Amino acid sequence: MHIANILIIEDDPAGSKKLKAALEKLSFGVCGVANNCTDALRFTRDLKPDIILIDTRLNEFEDGIKAAKVITERYKIPHVYISSETDDNTIERSKATNPYGFLLKPIDTRDLNACLRMALYRFESEHKLKESEEKYAKLAEKLIETEKKNSLLINHIPDVLFEYDREGRHIDYRAANPDNLYAEPKEFIDKTIKELLPPDLSIKFLDNIGKALDTGEMQIFEYIISLKNRFRNFEARIVKNGEDRVLAIIRDITSKKHTEETLKRSLDEKEILLKEIHHRVKNNLQIVASLLKLQSKYISDEHAIQMLRESQNRVHSMSLIHQKLYQTRDLSYVDFNEYISTVIMHLQHSFGILEDRVKVNINSKDIIMSIDNAIPVGLIINELVSNSLKYAFPNGSRGEINICLDFDNHSKNYSLSIKDNGIGMSKDINIEKTESFGLSLVNLLVGQMEGDLEVLNSGGCEFRINFKSSDYARRA
After folding, report:
1. What CA–CA distances, in Å, run from 128 to 75, 120, 136, 248, 401?
2. What does pTM read for this prediction?
3. Tens digits of per-residue pLDDT, 21-79?
4. Alpha-helical segments (H) within 11-108
5. What 3-state class would DSSP assign to 10?
6. Residue 108 per-residue DSSP state
7. Listed residue (323, 237, 335) closest to 286, CA to CA
8. Angle between helices 371-387 and 437-448 (to 10 degrees)
9. What's the rounded Cα separation, in Å, for the pair 154 and 151?
10. Is residue 102 within 8 Å of residue 112, measured between CB atoms?
């Protein structure tokens, strides 16, 4: 039996197929797959799913967030966004539709399972809460008119009820638990809120009383107040109750707030755990690099020593990624300019060729790259810069190496250029059939990123590589 029926709204056939398989493996049912706004609305109406997974961008011309807004306005069905976009504009626009979750591509199966279950739980809880609120509001409206008939019922409602006039004067109250009152009844009846509450809290109450009376709509807000030498959290719901009177339903939400804080601590602990994983991976890679360095001391063959040094540099470039992730709050993306600058500095010291002889210029400012791209790109730059430092400037000659990385927000493509003004590469070398391990590795990594490689051999040597961001690349 399925946990819930899900409608997938995703324009990428491969992505929706993979998502459908993941959902079915998690015991969710997929009642339909739509790839455009028209089908999305029709399937929602006809299939009546329990929850909707919708991409924030369906295609070049259709906006998933707008589709979600229409669905939300027409049908009481929760939706969860799936997206490759994490910019502020997308996040703010998404929040406006009150989504029940936001999953970043590529979607982790455990995150998908947890997000959907929590979304369904929240939707069910809100539905029950809304029913409860409507029930209490109706009861509250009748309390003043039928006080004698319903007094027994009122006295057993856990919330505190206050009746105020427009000036915030206490007219009446009901409290099943006197501990939730901020003063003795004889002290607040016929007195105004201003006379009893702290100034900032009294202003908040009076503002919401005015709005409830002027608009006829329920006003909801939270506040903290000290009761019996202990700070407690409350939620106030202000509803119009006659021409110039309101009913305030006050609920103690201290336990709820404590639960939220516990959940936040749990998330913080998971973040710390992930940082620790990056830290340990970095340490393990550094141990490998140290072993390679130690092994080279026991080898006399210069060619073998050179190979070990190059392997050590490759391991170091991967280790550095995990070090950067460990040092930042964002555990999936790295500042690429800072990362590559550190890699280049290490290479120059490794080959004993410093800035006074070969200057390396890096142009990749403001580029934040995911770990899926950063590791292969870091290895590619490590190989190509190593080649330039070893071969482009023989006999102590001087020169420059220029590294340029750009990102096209429209096509979601990266373009990487690594160029030196050295002696150039031999025309006899076929880059696609090279026997060089380093260049073979470059070819392999470019292929893995579904990119293309171009080599220009004029006025030095230039490698141009274009590849799609892993956040937008199609995943089978």
Report:
1. 17, 12, 12, 21, 65
2. 0.41
3. 999 999 999 999 998 888 999 999 999 999 999 999 887 677 889 989 999 889 989 99
4. 13-25, 37-47, 64-74, 88-95
5. coil
6. P
7. 323
8. 150
9. 5
10. no
